Amino acid sequence: MEPFIVGIRFQKTGKIYHFDASACKNIQIGDFAVVETSRGRQLGEVIQFIQNPSPPPEGSWKAINRKATARDLVLRQLWQKKELEAMINCRSKVAESGLQGVKIVAAEFTFDGARLSILYSTETEGSKIDLRNLRNAMQRLYPRSNVEMRQIGPRDVAKLLGGMGACGLENRCCSMFLSDFSPISIKMAKEQGISLTPSEITGMCGRLRCCLVYEYEHYVQARNTLPKRNKRVITPQGEGKIIDVYPLKQAVMVEFDNGQHKEYPAEDLQPWDEVEALRRKAEQPCAQCDDGEDEYGQPDPPASSESVPPIRRAPNPSAGRYPPRKKKKK
Q1: What SS3 state is found at 195?
Q2: Where in the chain is the domain with CATH 3.30.300.20?
Q3: For the domain with range 79-152, which CATH number is right: 3.30.300.20, 3.40.1380.10, 3.10.180.10, 2.60.120.1440?
Q4: pTM of this structure
Q5: What is the pLDDT of residues 100-151, one digit of tens each?
């Protein structure tokens, strides 16, 4: 029997995790379920049904404990109201202890309050700061919950805080719909012809903008069908050099020797190097003509009997006989 796999999300724009719902066949999209995760028991929303799922990397899917009840949903709301208070208390403890370079971003309770996660960031990414005293202080404030300190990166901070994007959108992409962060490189900006000014390609998180990856693949595929810059091409108006490429328009800007510029679509261009190679090959003599064959590889026809007289040989009287023996002298 095939397993009944569903996708569950724990946050509004968080990742979707797969769980085995074979023991809860009546669950529907939009329902909430209680599952066991690495961070304790969590309450997540069923987002989708997974058809023909691929085998999990760990060997088996985790099973859903049960479908969430009305009491579970109310309990979750009660603990969510305490998250702001926990974050304020943690910030006050940081100020009291004199910790430098630590920013408390958020506090998250599990739906039953069994675990409290303090999310923080540091000014220097990757730096290690001893927060044991801070954790112990928070543990004394919330003895019923298991307190843990979890460091997050600048992109996760921007996603949690939200706000207006650098491009002018009312909400940032990461807060609206991005469930995962793709790796971004400066090459993506160069491929799309975007200005490399830091203010143009940097987001509110201080990292390269996530939107640089949106159209990158389209630009790469479009450029594969166009000649590169500084290549010489043959146009209907003559020979010139490419000075700019417009991938989405499938066109290029050509500069002629007289300094004029003109835009041409890709189908009106011929590569100069290929045309030049064909011209040089056409000027070379045919190597097969010296072997008694014409340009099509056929042997030359035999000479006519009228033009070349036949060769006449003198008759040999001793043909077919042994040569005469010489007489010995006495």
Answers
A1: coil
A2: 79-152
A3: 3.30.300.20
A4: 0.71
A5: 889 999 999 999 899 999 999 998 766 678 899 999 999 999 999 999 999 9
